[in-house]
Amino acid sequence: MRAHEAGALHGDLGYRGPAWLRTPEDVNALVPQLWPRTVSRTEAGSLEIGGVNVADLAQEHGTPAYLLDEDDLRSRCREFAAAFGDADVYYAGKSFLCKAVVRIIQEEGLFLDVCSGGELAVALKAGFPAEKIGFHGNNKSVSELSRALEAGVGRIVVDSFDEITRLTDLSKKSNKRPKVLVRVTVGVEAHTHEFIATAHEDQKFGFSLAGGAAFAAAVKILDEGVLDLRGLHSHIGSQIFDTSGFEVAARRVLELQAQIRDARGVELDELDLGGGFGIAYTTQDDPSTAGDLAKRINKIVEGECDLANLRKPRLSVEPGRAIVGPAVFTLYEVGTVKDVDGIRTYVSVDGGMSDNIRTALYDASYSATVAGRRSPAEPMLARVVGKHCESGDIVVKDEFLPADVRPGDLLAVPGTGAYCRSMASNYNHVPRPPVVAVRDGASRVIVRRETEDDLLALDVG
Ligand code: LLP
């Protein structure tokens, strides 16, 4: 994540926001890289997505709501599949998963990465072919592993010696030989928020390369011969813009591959370099296209294979955010506008940290625009906050909104397709918003709005 530092105070005019914010004249403008591809501002001034006006969507489905641009999502799936060619592209379901999305990614030819029994259940329920599923997790339970074996999940990414023992026992009992990858912790310090970096030594995922655990795990699996070791896996973190981390990861994993070959005479066929490709949340973020990423990653792997004198393994990647993140914006309604004298204006919306925890959790930056009209008013620096009982309940830290923003205005926050609905909570017993897919002038609810009755149904007294 690119941490955007808050700007300095400017004389006695008060806080003006970080220097990267859009220029005030742009207050009605939509910066294309931030918005789903079918989104535009109509002549009349309101936003449209998939050919449907946001005012109509708000009326039909209520706010807050996650609005998914189905054409945008499909086009990103296709771009990744085409760019990576003969590599397998696993959509990382943790970013956002529901049955409709499972069907879309299947129709668009992707594989699927799941990391819990729940995600596996959604995939199987939607009819996704088990052999195209990769199963992750640092603490898969016996029940989860049994279900994966029974379903015939294509790859299980093993993450600990305990799991190897557990899976080996289950495989023997059920007379199955699952295909596995060994997750390797390559020791890369990815340039992202520490909570979403996953390849430095001091964290819970994978087998350490430096400490020799990764080599020992691979050799153990080969020597025991119960599990079918297909290859190695590395995921260095999330919201990464700089491919140098992938380069170091590929080099280290391929060196390990050469070491395994030299020790056991086995050249592993597969290499999974994980996901983590960054997207634009603000005008300052400049993400690579799928084509660029594929070119660079293929070149890195080919180069490293030459150096290690290995044949190029079958490659796979696991993008989540880069596929679904930009395809969605959250539509809120403004409830209150509060000017805190000389500091900033707080614009409260009808959702907040329960539908987007990323600002509070990772200090993430977002953008926003008034969605229901074009405003002639002067720009005003605002902070968009939610309705939760917590002062850290911030959706957008800094944004120029028109000075006439008022209760009843619709407000759109783009880039919320990944890790917003999937990390949503019921904090303060606020029901979770629906996900509405929009395409060709029509909308359909793919995840319905939670109700207070849903919440009470769990509360069995
Ligand atoms: N593969 C593995 C093994 C992963 O752990 C992840 C993400 C991905 C792929 C997909 O990464 P992506 O392409 O979506 O960046 N909640 C955090 C992100 C956590 C990511 C966890 N693993 C956030 O909101 O930024």
UniProtKB/TrEMBL annotation:
Q: Which reaction does it catalyse?
A: meso-2,6-diaminopimelate + H(+) = L-lysine + CO2
PANTHER family recorded:
DIAMINOPIMELATE DECARBOXYLASE, GROUP IV DECARBOXYLASE
Q: Which organism is it from?
A: Paractinoplanes globisporus
Give the Orn/DAP/Arg decarboxylase 2 C-terminal domain ranges.
Answer: 326-417
Q: Which domain of life is it from?
A: Bacteria
What pathway, per the record?
Answer: Amino-acid biosynthesis; L-lysine biosynthesis via DAP pathway; L-lysine from DL-2,6-diaminopimelate: step 1/1
Q: How does it assemble?
A: Homodimer.
Sites of the modification N6-(pyridoxal phosphate)lysine?
94
Cofactor(s) for this UniProt protein: pyridoxal 5'-phosphate
What GO molecular function annotations does the UniProt record carry, in alphabetical order? diaminopimelate decarboxylase activity
Per UniProt, residues of the Orn/DAP/Arg decarboxylase 2 N-terminal domain are 71-325
Q: Where does substrate bind?
A: 321, 358, 362, 390, 419
How is this protein named in the record? Diaminopimelate decarboxylase
Q: What is its EC number?
A: 4.1.1.20
Q: Which family does it belong to?
A: Belongs to the Orn/Lys/Arg decarboxylase class-II family. LysA subfamily.
The record describes the protein's role as: Specifically catalyzes the decarboxylation of meso-diaminopimelate (meso-DAP) to L-lysine.
